Amino acid sequence: RREPLSLINLKKKNEETGEEELASRLGHCKAKATRHIFLIRHSQYNLDGQADKDRTLTPLGREQAELTGHRLASLGLKFDQIIHSSMTRATETTEIISKHLPGVKKISTDLLREGAPIEPDPPVSHWKPEAVQYYEDGARIEAAFRNFIHRADAKQEEDSYEIFVCHANVIRYIVCRALQFPPEGWLRMSLNNGSITHLVIRPSGRVALRTLGDTGFMPPEKITRT
């Protein structure tokens, strides 16, 4: 319900001016700019940590974040903001990346925290969360998708470049939803730590996937998926 026609109350249409009035109002609701969404998976972290605060980045994870930050800076784009998950590993990854992008504001959100978005199809034997997680996490991650992945606001004049630092499950689900693929297939994709996924959202609402889980900028010995 983000296409221009859905943003207009047709009941209030001026019957005297008719289609001319409708066209004018549609024009004020149409997006003009393209949004570039860069979804970054956090770097390698300490899997032995019992609580989130203990799941800090490993030395290799910090190196990965430096490489990702350097890669993003090398693109020469004017990034508008970095929105990141409030979990420790995502926050630490963001802090390292942001050193390479001075002046870009950072925003923390609980919506992008890791979780179980939807029961995968086909099912897997090595990962079986409690059913309640799908209800709790799934609603939150779907809310993140609806909140962050959409065409540009009609008032936006120039193309925008935004970075989202979060988690593999969240990114895979968002990619499926953005491309209008069955979201149950999210677990069929694999993402490396520190990888870059690039979505493009045109003013028409069409979405294209430029890259998925790119880590070609990292030396092979620095690449991990844990």
TrEMBL record:
Similarity field: Belongs to the phosphoglycerate mutase family. BPG-dependent PGAM subfamily.
Keyword Mitochondrion part of the UniProt annotation: yes
EC top class named in words: hydrolase
Pfam families to which the protein is assigned, alphabetical: His_Phos_1
CDD domains, alphabetized: HP_PGM_like
Gene3D superfamilies: Phosphoglycerate mutase-like (3.40.50.1240)
Catalytic activities: O-phospho-L-seryl-[protein] + H2O = L-seryl-[protein] + phosphate; O-phospho-L-threonyl-[protein] + H2O = L-threonyl-[protein] + phosphate
GO MF term list: protein serine/threonine phosphatase activity
Protein name as annotated: Serine/threonine-protein phosphatase PGAM5, mitochondrial
Subcellular location: Mitochondrion outer membrane
Chief location of this protein within or outside the cell: mitochondrion
Domain of life: Eukaryota
Membrane spanning stretches: none
This protein's UniProt keywords: Hydrolase, Membrane, Mitochondrion, Mitochondrion outer membrane, Necrosis
Enzyme nomenclature, EC number: 3.1.3.16
GO process terms (BP): positive regulation of mitochondrial fission; programmed cell death
One GO cellular component term: mitochondrial outer membrane
